[in-house]
Amino acid sequence: MRAFGQVPGQTQPDSTRSRVPTDRNPVRPAATVQRDTIPVGNSQLISVGDSIAPGVIDTTRLTKIQTAKIQKIVPKKATLLSLALPGLGQAYNRQYWKIPIIYGGFAIFGYNIVSFNQRFKEFETGYRTAYNSTGTKTAFVRGREYSVQQLKLGYDTYRRWRDLNIILSVAFWAVNAVEANVAAHLRTFDLSDDLSLRVRPGMQRMPGSRAIPGVQLTFHLKK
């Protein structure tokens, strides 16, 4: 049956025919974003510009300053810096409170070296004066009269204490480098979830006796 107003030979359009909508703004794939990742145990800190990428789980926003501060401390570098200048390795480890202690120790050793060396020279001069004299064989040191034997004892004593403080100051310099190395190792020590401690009961057998109950500790370290 032909509908009213239909032109002969023209087919009626099918009203049930589905029309495919045209999307003028097709969805474009998201551009690849450069991410700075920092491993922390089994998780990762991910920095994506000034914002966090959507859908990322267990992330923390990092600024450029924070990212710059996160750096791996090298124990060898801390040791060499402390050998070059005491306290420099501690500054590299960001343990600035140790620097006054180190220089306080060197100040004590330096004061002892200067003081004992001055006393040593005074007794040395007095000893030479008394030994070469033709009279009573005595000499005055800081207003007090000493015999040759007393002057020789003071001469040897203060020289020994001066040399001992020189050796101790050199040893303290080495201890300063060792401390910087150990502190650097501790700061880079892995404290992630890959480390664990298991405590369980155990039996310990002693030679010639029965087994003794005890506690067994098992450490699981990161490989």
Explain what you see.
This protein is α+β, with helices and mostly antiparallel strands and 223 residues long. Helices cover 43% and strands 17% of the residues. It has 5 helices and 6 strands; from the N terminus they run E-E-H-H-H-H-E-E-H-E-E. It has helices spanning 64-69, 75-84, 88-92, 98-132, 148-187; strands at residues 36-40, 43-47, 138-141, 144-147, 196-205, 211-220. The protein has a two-stranded antiparallel sheet with strand order 1-2. Helix 4 runs antiparallel to helix 5 (148-187). The longest helix has 40 residues, at 148-187.
Short description:
43% of the residues lie in helices and 17% in strands. The chain has helices at 64-69, 75-84, 88-92, 98-132, 148-187; strands spanning 36-40, 43-47, 138-141, 144-147, 196-205, 211-220.
Offer a few descriptive terms.
223 residues; alpha+beta; two-stranded antiparallel sheet
Tell me about the largest β-sheet.
2 strands, antiparallel
Low-confidence runs: 45-60
By DSSP, the count of extended strands is: 6
What is the general shape? elongated
Q: Report, as a whole number of angstroms, the end-to-end distance.
A: 85 Å
Q: What percent of residues are in strands? A: 15-25%
SS-derived structural category: alpha+beta
**What is the helical fraction, as a range of percent?**
40-55%
Number of helices: 5
Q: Measured on Cα atoms, how large is the radius of gyration?
A: 41 Å
Please give the order of strands in the largest beta sheet: 1-2
Mean pLDDT reading: 74
Element order: H for helix, E for strand: EEHHHHEEHEE
